[in-house]
Each structure stands twice: as C-alpha cells, then as structure tokens.
C-alpha cells in the first residue's frame, strides 16, 4: 500500500517547527570557531540529535573584544526552536567572559582554548602544559586557517611589511615578530585523524626544525567533542549556563563558571 500524508496530517506528526522529537532527541545550535568545523561536523553526524551550525572566523581571536561581540551577536541570532546553544570555544583569552543568552541554555567545555577539544580534557591539557611550558600548538584547523610559525610565516610577513613600510622598517618589525616567539621551544601537533594528517605532521616538523624547536606528535582524544555533540554534559567537563546567567572565569581548575 502506498502511504501519503496531506499537510494537516504531516503537521500532526511533527512539532510546530517540523522536527519530530523522539526519545529525548534535541535540536541543538552550534556556534564554534571555524578551526573545529571538520571535527564538529563529524561528531554531529554521529549524534542522534539535530543540528544547525554557525562557524565564526578564526581571525576573530586576534582581538578578543571582537570575538566577544561577534559571539554574543551569533547567540542572540540563534534559532528560536533550539533547545540549547553549544559553544565551540574555550575561555579563549577571556573572550567568552560576560557572554549570556536571555532565552537559551548555553553549553561549553571547561577549556582554556580549542586545543582542549582535541586533547579530550582540561586535565590532559594542564598536564602537558605544566611539563612543556614553552609549547606552541599545531593542529589541522590551525594549519588550514592560518600560517603557523615557521619559515613560510616569516617570509610572508617580511614581504608584506617591506611592501607596506619599506625594507628598514620591515627589518625592525620582524625583530619584534621573532621576539614574542622566544618564549617557545616546542611545537606540539595534535589531531583526531581528520584530513591529510601525514602532511600536517610533516609541516609541523618542518616549522619546528626551521625555528630550532623540538617537535612532538600527540594523539587526540575525541571524548570531549563526542560528549558535547551527544548531549552528555557532566559538570566536570562542561558548563551549562541557564538563561539570563553569564559566563565568567572561575580562576581555578574548573576554568569557567556561571554567575
């Protein structure tokens, strides 16, 4: 027998927004840094929930105030039918401090930055950072979205400075550029096995050799991203912010809190 539904029957079988909610399934809206788009989309595809996405440009991190304003605007524009808004951000130089939603639950990992998403926990991040304080992180997203420290970045910046400010000023600006890198001595690459990982690893090693840094290849852990997308938001790993409350830095091992 051929089955068919007219418009009235179809409306009766779905909710008001056209999404049939069964067994506690949720409609979740994700706002995240574009650095994590590949990983987030993968684990969203494996999740039973329904998703909409808003990926923000990585360059917003260059000015935390700009990231804060753009992120708040994206939250304010979240779909009315979303059960919760998932944030693909950590504390990110305090850019999320003060972020709020008048109507939606906000969920974000207890993380300092996006590398925690790849390592799987704030505890693993802290352990590695404490053991290797001079670490600069490399990942597929960072490599795809920006030129990482290394010969390629040095030459591109020097050319841009020379064209804009002249050779003499370019030399001075490059001294300043290299100065902030002096506190680093280790290039740590981490991934969740997405994309051409061999090429990313080789790129990281090449950058480290040119900079006279050590390099280390770390295996990622998907548990944090998988739980975020599956709605398993335990308090130890995630902050759930009720409508009207704001995200704040906790200044302790929990990283963030609601107030």
Report on the architecture of this protein.
- There is one protein chain.
- The protein has helices spanning 7-13, 37-46, 64-76, 115-119, 122-131, 140-145, 151-165, 167-180, 197-211, 223-230; strands at 27-33, 50-56, 84-88, 105-109, 135-138, 186-191, 214-219, 238-241, 247-249, 256-258.
- Strands 2-1-3-4-8 form a 5-stranded mixed β-sheet, sandwiched between helices. Strands 5-6-7 form a 3-stranded parallel β-sheet.
- Residues 1-5 and 7-20 have low confidence and may be disordered.
- The longest helix is centred in the middle third of the chain and has 15 residues, at 151-165.
- The chain starts with 6 loop residues before the first helix and ends with a strand.
- Helices cover 40% and strands 19% of the residues.
- Helix 7 (151-165) packs antiparallel against helix 8 (167-180).
- Strand 1, helix 2 and strand 2 form a beta-alpha-beta unit.
- It has 259 residues and is an alpha/beta fold.
- It has 2 domains: 7-114 and 222-258, no CATH class; 119-219, no CATH class.
Short key terms for the protein model shown above:
single chain, 259 residues, alpha/beta, 5-stranded mixed β-sheet, 10 helices, disordered N terminus
Task: Give the total of domains.
Answer: 2
How many DSSP-defined strands? 10
Quaternary structure of the protein: single chain
The chain-level mean pLDDT equals 90
SS content category: alpha/beta
Strand content: 15-25%
Based on CA atoms alone, the radius of gyration comes out at 21 Å
Distinct helical segment count: 10
Helical percentage: 25-40%
**N-to-C order of helices and strands:** HEHEHEEHHEHHHEHEHEEE
**Biggest sheet architecture:** 5 strands, mixed
Going across the major beta sheet, what is the strand order?
Answer: 2-1-3-4-8
